[in-house]
Structures are given as C-alpha cells and as structure tokens.
Task: structure prediction
Amino acid sequence: MLITGATSAIGSALAKAYARPGVMLHLHGRNEPRLSDVAAVCRAQGAEVRTQQLDLRDFSALHDWLEALGALDLVIVNAGMNTHIGPNGEPEPWDEVDALLDVNLKAAMVTVQAVLPAMRARGRGQIALVSSLAGYFGLPVTPAYCASKAGLKAYGEALRGWLAPEGIKVNVIMPGYVASPMCEAMPGPKPFLWTPERAARAIRRGLERDKARISFPFPLNWGTWWLAVLPADLSTRIVRWLGFSRHAD
Result:
C-alpha cells in the first residue's frame, strides 16, 4: 500500500496503524528525518517499508515513480498544505495558493492517473482521497484550502461512480480538526479536535467497510453537511457567528 504525506500527523498515524508483518508500505514525505522515524517505527512493527522523498509538484517524477511501483492494493492520497488570509483581510499569497492547488488537487489527480492502470488491469484496488469537512462549505479564512478540498471531494465521488463496476473502490475521507502543526496554524476555532491516532482508526474502519464518505467527528460532520444544504447567505452568517472571519495574530 501507498501513503503520500506520511510525515504529517494523519499520514504517520495511518502508516503505524497499517504496519504489521506481511505488509509492504510505500511511504512518501517531504521531511526526511521525520520520514525515517516513521519508517523505523513501521519496520519495528514488522512491515516492509520503502520511502520516497519527492516534491509532489514535479508531476513527471511523481508519475514515473508511482507507475514503477506496479499494482497496489490501497493508495491513500493524504499529502496536503494550507494557507489563509492575512490578519487584516489581506489576500492569500499567490505563490502559496499556486503551490496549494498543485499539491492538494493536481498532485492527487496525477497520483490517481499513475496508479489506476495497474488496478484496472487486475480488476481490483482501492484509492482513498483525503479531503476535509471544509470541502462542504467554504470558510472565509481559508478560501483556497476549501476550494482544493471541495474539488478533491467531487473528484473522488466521480471516480467512485466511474470505477465501481470495475472492482475498484474509491473513498473520500473528510476529517474535521485533527491535532497537528498545520491545524494549529489555521485561524479560527477548532471544535471537536481529535488525535491523529483516533482519526487513523476511524479512517481504517471506514476503508474496510468501503464507505463512500468517511467523515468525522460527529456532530461537526453533521453541521458542515448542513452548511452545504442551507441557503448560502444563511450558512455564511453561521460561519461568521462561529468565529470563522478575519483573524488577529
């Protein structure tokens, strides 16, 4: 199996959750020392581990690496980044927005394109795309992040409908707030915060059951679903009331 962003909080917790004798883990990450640490823990649990430190924005290198791996049973597309508006409402820096769209959305699509042919050839496989509850309704403080996660959600749902008849499972993972440096850097309140380990357990259960959407925690997932259903003006007022507006450092 493959996990991108295996040095992140959720990614590393997932790697450890799946590590056991007889499992081959392909772990991708940007932080080499952190990647080595995660790999060492997984090997100690009995898994065979291969690591790859690769810039996901190098789409050709990403595609070539993944294509060379051959058929994979499970691919968890987890790598991601975030940016946000400034403390006085300044726009998100364009270089950060550009990188975010490349990593969160385009690299995810490249990953799917690269691993899919081998899965289709043998008629089975599973692809999990890590979106976010922020994909249901855009938050004023993180517009680019929300856009990328909404795009990934729609992409995964479309893939599921397309590929299910071929025996390929596609799942969209929609976490709420999970303790991590990226989460801490995000402006706004962080209700119902989960640990990475708890999130990894929920994700693994959902994948084993082939749930179309794996969203958590309740009731935050229920509330964000309603934000997408209610009239947009009302939802905008709700998120502002909840504290997701211009922030101060």
